[in-house]
């Protein structure tokens, strides 16, 4: 275990929106830069970091099907969007001198390795940031579900969900100034109170398999390190 850290292997879920910053669409290089710095800090200390990246900043299957597309076809476009984000992140890591690998659930040999669990674990053990792209490879899923699955598959000790707010609240803090933040909460209470932290499939995977999750604000520099060292920077769900 790296000294001073509570967790040694982590799965970080980054939504497409997190990468978008305030730009409204696509990828904000400033966000990628700051994220890469935060991740480099902990990888240099010996923490193994895997990432599941979303695609909502480029394309969402549900939005496509709402405008008349075949849902599965639209979901495949969504999955390809996650691959673009993964490649952009990898480029950021390369600039920072950090080794990383993109592993895609949909085969695309020219640009990414195909996801193989054992190889992913091997990359992590070698200190390479391992970015999982193309979701689960199946339509009708989300990248939150992918994050829960991959976290379990690679034996991550914690799933960290990066958001723009600093945890889970009893109501939407953007709309209700009196919203109260939870320091800790159980998956059962998340489901019972219909708190929208992740979709219900992802929540069930984590709950049934005892995968703890930290919801935290990515935009505060140093938060990834603090959370991995066990500091209370958001909400811990267990
Ligand atoms: N998607 C999918 N299967 C998966 C993961 C993702 O079909 O296993 C598609 C789905 O259309 C989704 C899109 O990819 O809308 C982008 O992922 P998501 O919406 O989860 O991204 P985020 O909200 O995290 O940016």
With helices defined by DSSP (H or I, 4 residues minimum), what is the helix count? 9
| Total number of beta strands | 11
Bound compounds:
uridine-5'-diphosphate
Query: What profile does the largest beta sheet have?
Result: 9 strands, mixed
Q: Which range does the strand content fall in?
A: 15-25%
**Which term fits the overall shape?**
globular
Overall pLDDT confidence: 95
Order of helices and strands: EHHEHHEEHEHEEEEHHEHE
- Enumerate the strands of the largest sheet in spatial order, edge to edge or round the barrel: 4-3-5-2-1-6-10-11-9
Classify the helix fraction into a percent range: 25-40%
Uncertain segments are none
Radius of gyration: 17 Å
Question: Structural class of the helices, strands and pairings?
Answer: alpha/beta
Distance between the termini: 21 Å
